[in-house]
Design a protein that fits this description.
Length: 85
């Protein structure tokens, strides 16, 4: 597996971790490389929040662009559909 960034964009903070997978005793194991929290980043203004997120990621100096993203459930629209065969 490649190195990956886990990014959690919450209402009160942004959290990011960088995880690398190293071979340990013959099996690939996840190794935490970096963990960061920005509690001052979220803002009511979406443009300012986007700029804060850009600066947060830029200042973290991650070694990869592979990202797994998490958003608050209240900010995402989801629905379950039941369709006939």
């Amino acid at each position: 597996m490649p190195t990956v960034i886990g990014l959690d964009i919450g209402h009160t903070s942004y959290r990011a971790v960088e995880v690398d997978y190293k071979k340990v005793a013959g099996a690939k194991k996840p190794i935490l490389v970096k963990a960061l929290i920005c509690e001052a980043c979220p803002n009511k203004d979406p443009k300012e929040s986007a700029e804060n997120l850009k600066e947060f990621i830029k200042s973290a100096n991650f070694s990869t662009k592979n990202v797994v993203l998490s958003l608050p459930e209240s900010s995402v629209f989801t629905t379950i559909l039941s369709l006939p065969f």
